[in-house]
Amino acid sequence: MRVPFDRLRTLGTTAALLAAALVPSAPPAVAAAPPMEVYGAWQCSNDACTWGTVRDLTDFDHANHWLVDRGDGRPSVNLVVLSFVHPLRLLDGTTDAQTVDGVPIGINQAVVDYFTSRGIRVMLSIGGITYTDAWNQALAENPALFGQRAAALATRLGVGIEIDYEENTSPNLTGLQTFVDAYRAVHPYDASGADPAARLTIDVAAGDRWLIGLNQYATANWLRTDRPVLDYANAMVPARQPATSGAIANWQEHLTGKPTYNPPVGPLAPAKFTAGLYVAEGSKVRPECNNFAASLQSSTGSWLRSAAPDGAGTSSGLLGYMFWAAERPSVRGVTTVPPNSCEAGVGVGATAHSVAIPMPPLRQS
């Protein structure tokens, strides 16, 4: 039987398709996860974040050596945020038994140099939840001068500044905008990250359902990739350390935003925030401190490094992790002082996640 030419062509095409189907196709290309750019710890000194005494550096090193040495001579972190500076005392330039020119006497050049001499970036956190009323007072009194004094402090110590303003119900956004404008007039945004004093960040809640007004405003006005004002935000720790699924759900809220809120909270680019985890919580030393294999920086690491944009930004992966908190974050809580130091959790994680030290320039998209 003769087969028409068109039929032969059809059969040939079909055979070719069947043959191709039997050949295993190459797996789709998967973009390599970006290196973890920010891997840091809030540092609270030995008096529950007051920094009210000048530290003996031998004692300070004993308490915090794990931060600068994960066990092989390399630091466990590439950022330390000294917490906290009292907002109103900074504005007023207070000098008393615990403060000089508005700065706790324990936060000094020697402590900054302890970290920077080892390639660790240093920032100062202004505020904290204990000082929320002080933030409100400073912003109401003279937010421009407040921003100028924060900028002068950053210049003097060679550090960046973190805004930790935890007013949940009625944040003074007009005053805070003035503060940011005054700071940026002295230290403009620096995409290269070369100027330590130009690093200006803000703390937001673990997800989008607390500090809503602050989060909405910062996301819309300061954390955009097309016209950045602040370098990034820290998604802080929630009331309790969550499970893996809960932690990811919190962080995903920032990526997605809350379009049904009034006003809506827009999506946040992955490259514009970090994820907060406890290392010490109440009376417990967490696996995040001393057991990387059982830690959230292990179980969430793959998600964090590959989290896709969901309406903002173009690159995948959050900037990294921030850990709350080194040494003594509360009067009655556990410390990270030996034997509770965190080389086996935070330190091992720095190796597992190939954390760069010193911190590299941050992604801008």
Describe this entry's structure for a reader.
Keywords: Signal. It comes from Kitasatospora gansuensis. This is GH18 domain-containing protein. InterPro entries: GH (IPR017853). This protein is α/β, with parallel strands linked by helices and 365 residues long. It has one domain: Glycosidases (TIM Barrel). The protein is 36% helix and 15% strand. It contains 13 helices and twelve strands. The strands form three sheets. Strands 1-2-5-6-7-8-9-12 form an eight-stranded parallel beta barrel, surrounded by four helices. Strands 3-4 form a two-stranded antiparallel ribbon. The chain has a two-stranded antiparallel ribbon with strand order 10-11. Strand 6, helix 7 and strand 7 form a beta-alpha-beta unit. The protein starts with a helix and ends in a 13-residue tail after the last helix. The N terminus is likely disordered.
Strand order of the largest sheet: 1-2-5-6-7-8-9-12
* Strand content range: 5-15%
The share of residues in helices is 25-40%
Order of helices and strands: HEHEHEEHEHHEHEHEHEEEHHHEH
Estimated structural class: alpha/beta
Mean pLDDT: 91
CATH architecture: Alpha-Beta Barrel
Number of spatially distinct domains: 1
Specify Rg, calculated over alpha carbons: 24 Å
What fold name goes in the CATH topology slot? TIM Barrel
Name of the level-1 CATH class: Alpha Beta
Instruction: Name the CATH superfamily assignment.
Output: Glycosidases
Form type: globular
Low-confidence stretches: 1-31
InterPro entries: GH (IPR017853)
Protein name: GH18 domain-containing protein
Keywords: Signal
